[in-house]
Write a structure and sequence with these properties.
The chain has three domains: 114 residues, Acyl-CoA dehydrogenase/oxidase, N-terminal domain (Butyryl-Coa Dehydrogenase, subunit A, domain 1, Orthogonal Bundle); 99 residues, Butyryl-CoA Dehydrogenase, subunit A, domain 2; 146 residues, Butyryl-CoA Dehydrogenase, subunit A, domain 3. Helix content is 50%, strand content 16%. It is built from eleven helices and nine strands. Strands 2-3-7-6 form a four-stranded antiparallel beta sheet, with no helix packed on it. Strands 1-4-5 form a three-stranded mixed beta sheet, with helices on one face. Helix 5 packs antiparallel against helix 7 and helix 7 runs antiparallel to helix 10.
């Protein structure tokens, strides 16, 4: 595999990095957290102006036809800046469902709004006691006339508090754990019968618990086959897992840089603590963990385009395992090497550790994915 970036990809990396360096320092981020929904509409508009919201969409739909590598580049930059805006929920996940399963009418109705920044989405999938199993769905979608009626509850829906459209998994037939009989539906966030309880999460993002009570949608709301949408869900979620791996690499990279800079400036016994060999060794171990995570993130990015669903899932699961382990190690070492200041809310290093911890527990933790790799017989 060729992991070298093309000239266009290097320009993209410089462009998004420059934008976030100018507009997303740590103090600005704290201000954005206080805005409605916990993120900045002005920054979202800048991402749209720079074309970042349209990257993965085909040119026929108004996008740039970029691939998984470009998504990786953007997500790494978002991770370095601890960006709060719903790029993952809207562009990666929401856009993924539309790109891979949406009808021409659905694409026309939603993609232009995503690209210009006027529309955001949220993926309502997690249910009570379902953990990370995508086929564990109790929320129901029953036919009524020419449409569907959705009933159920979804939890920790990232950006669910502010999204214009919800992408909802619901069971159209069968029992709770059946892999068939699952559909995906586009539901207006202001539809009758929807109630939300929004709240901030530990990493500064916002999520919502959402209840659907007799929510009626038309036949056009179903994305793809309403009785066999699990393969579509698995594909989009694998792409999202690869994306959060890249985001985690960005956060780990910045954590390491911040920690090394602190070691160079913090003095003890009249000298910089970075001169102590034991602390240098710990920083070196952090670098090794980062590079292990980076290589597996790149592998997951390449694997996101695999046609073989099992190979794709196993590769992405292996990446999630390594990224989770590296994130935990780098986060813990960063806090410890910063000492007491690392535990304060004013120090940004603690916020990186929080985000890394939330990524570890999003879309399957290390133990869950290690089991998936084991059940698949390993990577080779």
């Amino acid at each position: 595999m060729d992991f070298d970036l093309s000239e266009e990809q290097r320009l993209l990396k410089e462009s998004v990095g420059g934008l976030l360096t100018d507009a997303y320092d740590f103090d600005s981020r704290r201000k954005y957290m206080l805005e409605k929904g916990g993120w900045s509409r002005a920054i979202w508009a800048k991402l749209a102006e720079q074309g970042l919201l349209g990257l993965p969409f085909p040119e026929a739909d108004g996008g740039f036809g970029a691939g998984a590598v470009e998504t990786m580049i953007v997500m790494e930059a978002l991770g370095r800046a601890l960006v709060l805006e719903p790029y993952l929920a809207t562009v990666v996940i929401g856009g993924g469902f539309l790109r891979h399963g949406g009808s021409a009418a659905q694409k026309e109705a939603h993609i232009p709004g995503i690209i210009d920044g006027s529309k955001t989405l949220a993926f309502a999938q997690l249910e009570k006691n379902s953990r990370y199993d995508l086929n564990d769905v109790v929320t129901s979608a029953k036919t009524k006339g020419d449409g569907w009626v959705i009933d159920g509850e979804k939890f920790v829906v990232v950006n669910g508090e502010n999204a214009d459209t919800l992408i909802v998994t619901a069971r159209t037939k069968g029992a709770r754990h059946d892999k068939s009989g699952i559909g995906v539906f586009l539901v207006p966030a202001d539809a009758n019968g929807i109630s939300k309880k929004g709240y901030p999460t530990q990493d500064g993002l916002h999520a919502a618990d959402i209840t659907f009570t007799g929510v009626e949608v038309g036949t056009e709301a179903a994305i793809g086959d309403p009785e066999n949408a699990l393969p579509l869900i698995e594909r989009v979620v694998d792409e999202a897992r690869a994306a959060v791996c890249a985001e985690a690499v960005g956060a780990m990279d910045e954590s390491l840089k911040t920690t090394v800079e602190y070691l160079k400036t913090r003095k003890q016994f009249g000298v910089a603590i970075g001169s102590f060999q034991s602390l240098q060794h710990r920083a070196a171990d952090m670098f090794v963990a980062l590079e292990q995570a980076r290589s597996m993130s790149m592998f997951a990015t390449m694997a996101a385009d695999f046609d073989d669903a099992k190979e794709r899932a196993t590769a992405v699961a292996a990446a999630k395992v390594q990224v989770g382990k590296s994130g935990k190690f780098i986060g813990q070492q960063s806090i410890q090497l910063h000492g007491g200041i690392g535990m304060t809310i004013e120090a940004k290093i603690g916020h990186y550790f929080k985000r890394l911890t939330m990524i570890e527990n999003s879309l399957g933790d290390s133990e869950y994915h290690l089991r998936r790799v084991s059940e698949a017989g390993g990577l080779v």
